[in-house]
Amino acid sequence: MQIFSFHLTKANLATTAKALCHPPTAKSTSGLLHAECMAAMRLGAPILSPARMQLRHLVVFASWENESAIDTFLTGTELGRTLSMGWHVRLEFLRRWGRVSEFDGLPESVGDTDPAAPVVAVTLARLKLPQVPRFIRWGKPVEELVRDHPGTTLALAAMRPPRTVSTFTVWRSQREMIDMVRGHGPVPGVARHASAMVERERKDFHYEFTTLRFRALTEHGEWEGRSDIVPI
Questions:
Q1: How far apart are alpha carbons 82 and 93 in whole angstroms?
Q2: Measured between alpha carbons, how far is 110 from 133 in angstroms, rounded to an integer?
Q3: Against a cut of 0.85, is the pTM above it?
Q4: What CA–CA distance (Å, rounded) separates 118 from 230?
Q5: pLDDT digits over 39-58, tens only?
Q6: CB crowding 130-169: b at 16 or more within 10 Å, else e
Q7: Which pLDDT does position 53 carry in this prediction?
Q8: Has residue 1 got a pLDDT over 90?
Q9: Buried-most residue among 35, 46, 163, 164 (CB within 10 A)?
């Protein structure tokens, strides 16, 4: 069964640079289907600040043929051993909206899901470089909304220059996530996400964009002193 994983770890600059420039591939790594290697970003951080692109915080989002392939990668490769010292969550796919070519094989949905259940969301986008100023203008208020939303237990962004940007959020419930997306709820400025989506429809920021929704299977390790990040 295809399985996904999302990893966070602290790494030196050389390790991050190598992962960004030469990510593992299906040819080089047994059982790997696709991997996105990125540097973490703090949602809502000033554009020109060290927190905006944290090169010592390595992010890997990957899809695998099965769970044993993850274990083999974490113990049997240099990058995997670095990731094993951080935190990761293993994920079961639930729903896809939009399109990024590397995940074209995923269905739109695997069926109905419990709106009260916790959910993990990953967005992945390939930016149109001329649209970056517009993307920042409309995206930064949304970053702050997601970062400060009481429904999230973890929210961060990541990027691989020059075009790839991503967000990763863990939500207490699917209902809270959907309310945020639609601009509903008592949260201050909750309409920011919906407004940005209207602007995106008017003139797209990306040439590819997808939101993937998952159910967390297992959680491993710690991130900045935290564990049990995914609600039970």
A1: 25
A2: 36
A3: yes
A4: 8
A5: 999 888 877 777 788 999 99
A6: ebeeebeebbbbbbebbbebebbbbbbbbbbeeebbbbbb
A7: 84
A8: no
A9: 35
Q: Are strands 164-171 and 152-160 parallel, antiparallel or unpaired?
A: antiparallel
Q: Which residue has the tokens 């059982």?
A: 31
Span 67-72, average pLDDT: 97
Q: How far apart are the first and last CA of the chain?
A: 23
Pair 91, 4: CB distance under 8 Å: yes
Q: What's residue 49's pLDDT?
A: 76
- Contacts of residue 231, defined as CB under 8 A and 6 or more positions apart, other chains included, come to 118, 153, 170, 172
- Cα 43 from Cα 222, distance rounded (Å): 20
CA distance 94 to 82: 28
- Write the CATH number of the domain with boundaries 3-221: 3.30.70.100
- Kindly write down the DSSP assignment for every residue of 23-75, as one continuous string: ---TTTSTTEEEEEEEEEE-TT--SSSTTTSEEEEEEEEEEESSHHHHHHHHH
| Mean pLDDT, the chain, integer | 94
From residue 167, alpha-carbon distances to 35, 66, 211 in Å are 15, 24, 9
